[in-house]
Specification:
309 residues, 12 helices, 42% helix, nine-stranded mixed β-sheet, 2 domains, 9 strands, globular, Spore Coat Polysaccharide Biosynthesis Protein SpsA, Chain A, alpha/beta
Length: 309
């Protein structure tokens, strides 16, 4: 018998009482596909569970984590319970266009293991942007691991491909034993997708833009700090240890290492300047001259906000 559920939509939630209904309703509103909505509560301390239980729709299932483990741990619970042919990740404060899933599935080839679309941003004024990526930022067709690695940079003009929210073929993920790393709380989507590609996934970028990403002040992804970069460097080492990379992928990883190291030195330098540690700051500048170039970032950001560049 064929699988009656086309897509399992996994929503990891923590203290999301104020916005999770928007995510759930957008999942239930998907046209042309059968879905189940798996909300994994990550030990919330607010009324998230009560809000989810108020939704009287048999397609919505609430799964409770015994302890707070972060988005990766919560998604692992959802992925393990997923019964659909495909699994979609939806953040608890985001949404999807009602035709997103059907458009993606209709455009997919039979050999695809991962489907990737573009996304739009919803700002605090309720305005939805144009698609985030151009076709040069995220070319249509096959996505390679080397391209994913070399376009996952920080403090760069390159638009990071780590923001995408793909659909994953359920059978592929489970047969390969791919899981989120629970200890990763920033960049968890990047490492999961990279692990899929390292395990031979056929990933296709589609000419669609159905995911709506909410820009929310205070999210961990909106402010990069020294500990975040340190963890990313450590997780990259773990990824390299677990997967044997080809030459092109190794070259891409070297570029990413250089970028993250430069970002680390820049953030340390900014901290030293703010604390008026003049001698350590000067030593940092001479030892890591590339980090000095990033000092213009705060100025450019302020100018952009003033003149709407």
């Amino acid at each position: 018998m064929s699988n009656p559920i086309d897509v399992s939509i996994v929503i990891a939630a923590w203290n999301a009482q104020d916005f999770i209904l928007t995510a759930i309703n957008s999942a239930l509103a998907q046209k042309g596909v059968s879905v189940e909505v798996l909300v994994v509560d990550d030990a919330s301390t607010d009324s998230t569970c009560t809000v989810v239980e108020s939704v009287k729709d048999s397609r919505v299932k609430l799964l409770r984590s015994e302890k707070n483990g972060g988005p990766g741990a919560a998604r692992n619970i959802g992925f393990a319970a997923a019964k659909g042919k495909w699994i979609a990740v939806l953040d608890s404060d985001d949404a999807m266009h009602e035709s997103r899933l059907t458009n993606m599935l209709n455009a997919a080839s039979e050999t695809a293991d991962v489907l990737i679309d573009n996304f739009c941003e919803l700002n605090s004024d309720g305005v939805i942007s144009n698609p985030f990526y151009s076709t040069s930022d995220l070319p249509l067709g096959d996505l390679s691991l080397s391209f994913l690695i070399k376009t996952n940079l920080v403090f760069s003009k390159v638009k990071s491909t780590g923001y995408v929210k793909p659909l994953f073929r359920n059978v592929f993920v489970k047969e390969k034993g791919i899981q989120y790393w629970p200890e990763v709380r920033i960049g968890e989507d990047y490492y999961f997708l990279a692990s899929c590609l390292a395990n031979g996934a056929n990933a296709q970028v589609l000419d669609q833009a159905g995911y709506i990403y909410t820009i929310r002040d205070g999210s961990i992804s909106s402010k990069m700090e020294v500990p975040h970069i340190t963890k990313l460097l450590d997780f990259d080492k773990k990824f390299m240890h677990e997967h044997k990379l080809l030459k092109e992928e190794l070259n891409a990883q070297q570029s990413r290492d250089k970028n993250l190291t430069c970002a680390y030195n820049y953030l340390v330098l900014v901290k030293q300047i703010k604390m008026r540690q003049i001698l350590p700051a000067l030593k940092n500048m001479f030892s890591n001259p590339s980090s000095i170039l990033l000092l213009s970032l705060p100025i450019k950001k302020r100018l952009a906000s003033l003149f709407k560049f």
